[in-house]
Amino acid sequence: IFVQDSISFIKKIATVKGLHLQNPPFAQAKLVTVLIGEIIDYIVDLRPSSKTYLHYGKVTISEENKNTLFIPRGFAHGYITTKENTIISYKVDNQYSPEHERTINWQDGTLGLDWPKYNQYFLSDKDKNAKKLKELEID
User: Fold this and answer.
1) 20 included as an active-site residue
2) Which residues make beta-bridge pairs with 131?
3) Alpha-carbon span 19 to 38, nearest angstrom
4) Measured between alpha carbons, how far is 110 from 52 in angstroms, rounded to an integer?
5) Under a CB-based contact definition with an 8 Å cutoff, are residues 79 and 42 in contact?
6) 66 C-beta neighbours (distance < 10 Å), count
7) Spatial CB neighbours of 81, under 8 Å, sequence gap ≥ 6
8) Among 2, 42, 105, 121, whose Cα sits 20 to 30 Å from the Cα of 113?
9) Active-site pick, 20, 42, 77, 121
10) Is the N-terminal amide bond of 116 cis, ω within 30° of 0?
11) Residue 22: is it exposed, middle or buried by C-beta count within 10 angstroms (0-12/13-18/19+)?
């Protein structure tokens, strides 16, 4: 059961959001859809007991391909916009809790994420100041 719907409007290409997750008891599953524009969405498995621990996947989600991505609890999530004026819809199954939120640096080399190359990237202060995975407490 989803408890919250959110919409993000991103004006610029090469805007990076994430990698975000929340620790229990406020861990969240998410359902991500792009209403207008396009993103490349990244998920990283942070469940230590999983066979795919620290593996990642990525998928292009756009208004044209109509992909939707379900992200289970225990995964970090981030994306980059590849078109201007992108509108993203999220559904989450648990309340937001700032005390339980973790933000992992999108360029953390231990994750090996293959981001598209742009001359300039745009990030919020929260994402600019994100820590590497080994510096964070992830439950």
Assistant:
1) yes
2) 104
3) 18
4) 14
5) yes
6) 9
7) 10, 12, 13, 14, 15, 37, 38, 39
8) 2
9) 20
10) no
11) buried
> Which of 42, 55, 90, 121 is flagged as catalytic?
90
Q: What's the rounded Cα separation, in Å, for the pair 30 and 61?
A: 14
- Find the angle CA(30)-CA(100)-CA(136) to the nearest 5 degrees: 100
pLDDT digits (tens, 9 = 90+) for 84-132: 999 999 999 999 999 999 999 999 999 999 999 999 999 999 999 999 9
Buried b (16+ CB within 10 A) or exposed e, 78-88: bbbbbbeebeb
d(CA 123, CA 121): 7
Residue pair 78/106 in contact by the 8 Å Cβ criterion: yes
Nearest to 27 by CA among 69, 72, 78: 72
Per the CB < 8 A criterion, the answer to whether 54 and 44 are in contact is yes
Q: Give yes or no: 90 in active site.
A: yes
Over the range 25-51, which residues count as b (16 or more CB within 10 Å of their CB) and which as e?
ebbbebebbbeebbbbbbbbbbeeeee
Task: Name every residue whose Cβ is closer than 8 Å to that of residue 71 and which is 6 or more positions away in sequence.
Answer: 29, 30, 31, 32, 43, 77
